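Neuropeptide FF receptor 2 (Amphiprion percula), 437 aa
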Amino acid sequence: MRTIHNHKSYTHLMQSSKISQAESVRLSVCLNNITYVGFYLHQPSTAAIFIVSYLLIFLVCMVGNAVVCFIVLRSKNMRTVTNLFILNLAVSDLLVGIFCMPTTLLDNIITGWPFGSLVCKMSGMVQGISVSASVFTLVAIAVDRYSDSVLLLLFRCIVYPFKQKLTISTATLIIVIIWVLAISIMCPSGVMLQVTKEQTIRVLLGYDNKTTPFYWCRENWPNQDMRKIYTTVLFANIYLAPLSLIVIMYARIGITLFKTAVPTGGKPGHDNRHTVSKKKQRVIKMLLIVALLFILSWLPLWTLMMLSDYASLTEQQYRIINIYIYPFAHWLAFFNSSVNPIIYGFFNENFRRGFQAVFKFSLCAADGQRRKTYSHRLQGNSVLPANNVQTSLEPISLNSLDKNIPRRTNHITEQDLVMEDLEKGSCSSGGVTAVSI
């Protein structure tokens, strides 16, 4: 989440006694107190693996999270408190995909920082803000899910003492507070992030001995102790403490899940209780997996950041960490931004139907220029076209249909019509209820 580089990894990429332009990749040689390094950090095959891996999660991140945003915003039935928090997660993941994945990929396969100061600050800030917003949102979801939480009860008693559940307006206010906190905690990083020119390093370009100055994007703290303190504050406030709270809450949810009392009266009530319990289990399982994946995905990168600031590593260890381990840790962290929509689709039928409706809608829109879509229902010898079903109460069909046709027409509208937009598709054939328990 923070732009971390160490000059030792660049000045000691690979020691050599002479410059071979055919082996400029991962090459370093020191002449007249100037260290010359190759432009590329990896062989073409290794760089290709990095590019394909990052491109894959970038595409999944952009498409998946954009569809999640579309589903929640388009369908009124999906606008619940939990889904609003999920929408906030999707927005933060989109920001990571747009501002962080491309720049991090280039930074991990070439030497130095190829962009300007603005991109340096934007990339580091947006990544840090997005991650902070994500973890705070996960905490808000856990608090909302665990209705007996002391923290939630205090919030409700103080702010909304007569309401039994968070409302959309309250959730919106919480999301605004989340982003304000995320921006505030990352402001020091944005101030300290600078593009610095290294006077003792030159980057080799091509095969004609041309060189260019070496730039890097890093937090330029007055001293190393201040950097260590800030790293520790970030680790405690946007990783260790919030995610520990999440784990504790979901553990308590798991303990109390089957003790939830639902008013019942007879066998139908018992069936309803069983259904609610199953839905509750599935939603909580989905949210728990999202939280656990977040913890595991960001753990390697946080570990490397703490090692970079606190551990006494050798030059060889710095080289291996910066060139090989950091790219993988970044990829794993970004993978978390891509996998959430897949989890939603796998565990939640409403999102799954939403995904299907979006793709069906796009396919039907492309095919709609060549043919019309009809829904057929046999009524004696008559076939009703789809565009007439919804208007079957008009005089054009009144003389030919009996009195029961309007009721059947309504049934056709709910059961048989092909989904032509997401909102209709979300409510058809049995109804898509919002993600709420």
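The mean pLDDT is 72. Residues 267-310 form the longest helix (44 residues). ok done for today
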